[in-house]
Amino acid sequence: MTNSLNADDADLVDTDFIDTDTVHIDRVLSTTRSVRRKLDFERPVEQQVIEDCISIATQAPVGMGGENWRFLVVRDERKKSQVAGVYQEVMHELTAARGISIKATHQALMDRMHEMPALIFVCVIGQPESSYSSNVAFFGSILPAAWSLMLALRARGIGTTWTSLLSAREAEIAGILDIPEGVMQTVMLPIAYTKDARLKPADRLAAGEVTFVDTWGSR
Ligand SMILES: Cc1cc2nc3c(=O)[nH]c(=O)nc-3n(C[C@H](O)[C@H](O)[C@H](O)COP(=O)(O)O)c2cc1C
Which residues line ligand 1 (CB under 6 A)? Predict the structure, then answer.
């Protein structure tokens, strides 16, 4: 521990952790894929497990606006069906407008969304102001928590998909779930334990291809 660390930093230093756990952590970080098909729709996801994951999610960075995140876990069969119905409509509208067909994997999620043990809406109290910097701060204070939630779920064998389609029908979803005015919905994570899912790293550009040093464009 060096003298340059302040008290808060010092609390965080744990070198043993770095030696022992990076393999597992890196695996979770690089294999948290969208899981729409290989899911166990019969197996309930315990509320305590979800709340453990939410506790981890709320360790994400948060801007000066403070902890405005709220998590709405929807288990009620009727509400899930209503949400799934809206999701289907948006998907059909969107793909029709773009002249594209619905991929089999997206179709699978759509078809069985109402059977998911739970749908988690990651909500935030407030609205971003119109400026660019306000948007960066606003969404930067909620979306990292949503991603941490996906990671924490993945680490427990629970599959999810990052979905944002429902934001096109925010008012309707608010009506179904009694979400008050002034609360914004960001992503919705449909969750279920995975079943025979083989999750592997995605095919992405190598770090060297997307990283510059000192000057834009310089590698
Ligand atoms: C901003 C954003 C919005 C997304 N919205 C949806 C969505 O509404 N429904 C869905 O099934 N997937 C959605 N996805 C998931 C992508 O389709 C997914 O990342 C893509 O299928 C690649 O798969 P992977 O996550 O396993 O790499 C979204 C992803 C992002 C980043």
Answer: 33-34, 106, 109, 161-165, 202
| Ligand 1, atom 19: closest residue by C-alpha | 34
Which residue lies with its CA nearest to atom 15 of ligand 1? 162
CA 109 to ligand 1: nearest atom: 11
Reply yes or no on whether the pLDDT at 1 is more than 50.
no
Cα(149)–Cα(52) distance, rounded to whole angstroms?
9
Q: Which CA distances in Å does 73 have to 25, 35, 47?
A: 26, 18, 9
pLDDT digits (tens, 9 = 90+) for 44-70: 999 999 999 999 999 999 998 889 999
Token digits for 61? Answer: 């960075």
Domain that holds residue 73: 35-195
CATH assignment at residue 125: 3.40.109.10
**Domain-embedded: residue 4:** no
Within 8 A by CB and 6+ apart from 8, the residues are none
Expressed in angstroms and rounded, the spacing between residue 76 Cα and the centre of ligand 1 is: 24
Residue 27 in this model has a pLDDT that exceeds 60: yes
Probe target for ligand 1 pocket from 35, 109, 163, 187, with the most ligand atoms within 8 Å of CB: 163
- On whether the CB atoms of residues 219 and 211 are closer than 8 A, the answer is yes
Q: Whose CA is nearest to atom 6 of ligand 1?
A: 163
pLDDT of 194-205, one tens digit each?
Answer: 999 999 999 999
167 in any annotated domain? yes
Q: How many domains is the chain built from?
A: 1
